[in-house]
Design a protein that fits this description.
CATH architecture: 3-Layer(aba) Sandwich
CATH superfamily: P-loop containing nucleotide triphosphate hydrolases
Helix content: 25-40%
CATH class: Alpha Beta
Number of domains: 1
Largest sheet: 9 strands, mixed
Order of helices and strands: HHEEEHEHHEHEHHEHEEEEH
Radius of gyration: 27 Å
Number of strands: 11
Strand order of the largest sheet: 5-4-6-7-3-8-9-10-11
Length: about 300
């Protein structure tokens, strides 16, 4: 049985009259004050989280990019807005579409909002990797809005109606000014909807500098995570630039911050981890030794 404690308090005449009025309805001053206090506590702490089990309730979303999920503890936390940023032509759009494809394979509805390309152009980029985007569109798992001039209200209405689990915005630099996006009530409304519905979102942005330059904009500070894309010469004697990806930020996640090389295979982007690089090196050396033996 719950213990009862005497109440020692000093109330104004107005407050006492309110207490007495509710006392007539609820039966006792103790009950009135108890309900009021519990109501205040509920408003202050809407969800009680057990700090001992918090890691168990972090649901992670698989990206479908070979070698990437290992860099972020198995996947992107559900409901995160992650900025995919970097210089032009470094694989940001391919990475993002591959991320949506993984969702569609698992019967998740996805939306691709492009602010600078037509829908058919986005689809053609996917076809080159053998991704049958058309079948997912026919089945209702994908909507592509190309060269969109949609307003904030229209975007929110589309999200409410379609109920996606994954979204891509390409690119935010076109959608909103970099200097006021964090203060923009319009974009904050979109962020609020994405968070409430636990939608995992990739937001593509543009940079004029490579990984070596540590300069961040408001898009980066706004996001739950940052994935940086770049291409550069690894050695002075190299004829072609190599592609690199670096996870610079991912909240509630232990990340691998080392820049990793990746390739565009016939299936899409593949991260070259240290074991895969060693394997590639061994195959290359093996083929060279066979070539020499044949020559002799």
């Amino acid at each position: 049985m719950r213990a009862k404690h005497p109440i020692h308090t000093t109330l104004s005449t107005e407050a006492m009259s309110v207490l007495e009025r509710y006392e007539q309805e609820l039966g006792a001053k103790n009950i009135v004050l108890e309900r009021a206090l519990l109501g205040m506590d509920k408003l202050r702490f809407k969800e009680k989280v057990d700090t001992q089990t918090i890691s168990k309730i972090i649901k992670r979303v698989k990206t479908g990019i070979q070698g990437f999920d290992e860099l972020v503890e198995g996947g992107i936390p559900e409901g995160f807005i992650v900025v995919a940023t970097g210089t032009p032509g470094t694989g940001k759009t391919t990475f993002s579409m591959q991320f949506l494809l993984e969702g569609m394979k698992n019967n998740q509805k996805c939306i691709f909002f492009s602010f600078e390309e037509k829908a058919d152009q986005v689809i053609k980029q996917s076809i080159r990797y053998g991704w049958d985007i058309g079948q997912y569109m026919e089945k209702g798992y994908l909507e592509v809005f190309g060269f969109t001039m949609l307003s904030t209200e229209e975007i929110i209405e589309i999200i409410d109606t379609f109920k996606p689990k994954r979204i891509v915005f390409d690119s935010l630099n076109i959608f909103s000014d970099i200097t006021d996006i964090r203060k923009s009530s319009e974009f904050r409304n979109i962020v609020k909807v994405i968070k409430e519905k636990k939608i995992t979102c990739l937001a593509i942005t543009e940079k004029k500098h490579g990984i070596e330059v540590k300069e961040y904009d408001d898009f980066d500070f706004m996001a739950d995570g940052i994935i940086y894309f770049d291409k550069k010469l690894t050695h002075e004697l190299d004829m072609q630039k190599a592609y690199f990806i670096e996870v610079q930020k991912m909240r509630i996640t232990k990340i691998n911050e080392i820049p990793h090389q990746f390739i565009f295979s016939d299936k899409g982007i593949e991260i070259r981890t240290l074991p895969s690089l060693a394997s590639a090196f061994e195959k290359n050396m093996h083929s060279k030794s066979i070539g020499k033996s044949q020559q002799t």
